[in-house]
């Protein structure tokens, strides 16, 4: 997909879309292919999947830690 297509779909100004694409490129989440004067962007699914795995693990760890904290607070509350 080219920048112009993204601008239309996202209803955002072109400079904003270009800036966001640069950030995504820096994170290796999108790749770019130049054809003439146009650049076509695509999602790097492997990198995206790695990020999603990391996020799921962090959320799971957070939920476990939060649940443990609630249990500890409950026990303290019940013992008082």
TrEMBL record:
Pfam families: HTH_5
Residue stretches making up the HTH arsR-type domain: 1-63
InterPro entries in UniProt: ArsR-like_HTH, HTH_ArsR_DNA-bd_dom, WH-like_DNA-bd_sf, WH_DNA-bd_sf
Coiled coil: none
Species of origin: Candidatus Shapirobacteria bacterium CG_4_9_14_3_um_filter_36_12
Entry's Gene Ontology molecular function annotations: DNA-binding transcription factor activity
Protein name per Swiss-Prot or TrEMBL: HTH arsR-type domain-containing protein
Superkingdom, natural source: Bacteria
PROSITE patterns on file: HTH_ARSR_2
């Amino acid at each position: 997909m080219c920048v112009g297509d993204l601008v239309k779909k996202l209803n955002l100004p072109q400079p904003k879309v270009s800036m966001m694409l640069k950030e995504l490129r820096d994170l290796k989440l999108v790749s770019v292919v130049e054809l003439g004067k146009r650049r076509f962007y695509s999602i790097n699914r492997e990198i995206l999947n790695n990020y999603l795995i990391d996020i799921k693990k962090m959320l799971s760890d957070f939920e476990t830690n939060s649940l443990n904290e609630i249990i500890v607070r409950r026990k303290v509350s019940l013992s008082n």
